[in-house]
Design brief:
Layout: H1 3-43, H2 57-91, H3 97-127, H4 134-172
Helix pairs in contact: 1-2, 2-3, 3-4
């Protein structure tokens, strides 16, 4: 294994580890969002001190539901990213048709899930205008812009890896 192959293996392993950590944190965030929804349903009237930042129970529920949707979308993306990196490590190269297909799928998922979850989160936040905070919207748009760039990057990289896999197959023939 030459220096470039070792570097690719190290970066791929780091991607596998980081995507697994992201997946775990996303699952924790999903649990926290679900707990906040349950807390708002059960304790809104008995413990109003827990919900001082919200004007109404409906607003709290909508914002927490939006956060839950965002966390679920992020967890799905982290899961597929971890799968891709694990398969690339197993193959010992990213230049496989399977790896290229997984990168393409991941790019498409990012380009679909990220804007969809943002739109749902904004719609849920805006549905109850007293709870709508423009700074939340700005943060979501900035984060979503980075995800869209990442999705495009995975699509382009899938083409490079597919080309590499096809070249390798032609060499072996």
């Amino acid at each position: 294994m030459d220096k470039t192959e070792r570097t690719i293996a190290k970066v791929t392993n780091a991607g596998r580890i980081l995507s697994r950590i992201a997946w775990i944190f996303d699952l924790i965030a999903c649990g926290c969002s679900a707990f906040l929804i349950l807390a708002a349903l059960l304790w809104w009237n008995t413990r109003p001190d827990l919900f001082t930042g919200y004007a109404s129970q409906t607003g709290a529920l909508l914002i927490c539901a939006g956060d839950l949707i965002g966390c679920v979308g992020s967890a799905v993306l982290a899961y597929f990213a971890r799968q891709h990196f694990a398969h690339a490590l197993e193959a010992q190269t990213p230049f496989t048709l399977r790896g290229a297909a997984e990168q393409k799928r991941l790019g498409i998922l990012i380009l679909c899930i990220s804007p969809a979850t943002m739109v749902l989160r904004v719609a849920l936040s805006a549905a109850f205008s007293a709870e709508f905070m423009p700074e939340r919207l700005a943060g979501m748009i900035v984060a979503d812009g980075g995800m869209l760039a990442l999705g495009v990057m995975f699509l382009v990289l899938s083409l490079v890896c597919r080309y590499g896999a096809e070249r390798e197959a032609m060499k072996q023939e």
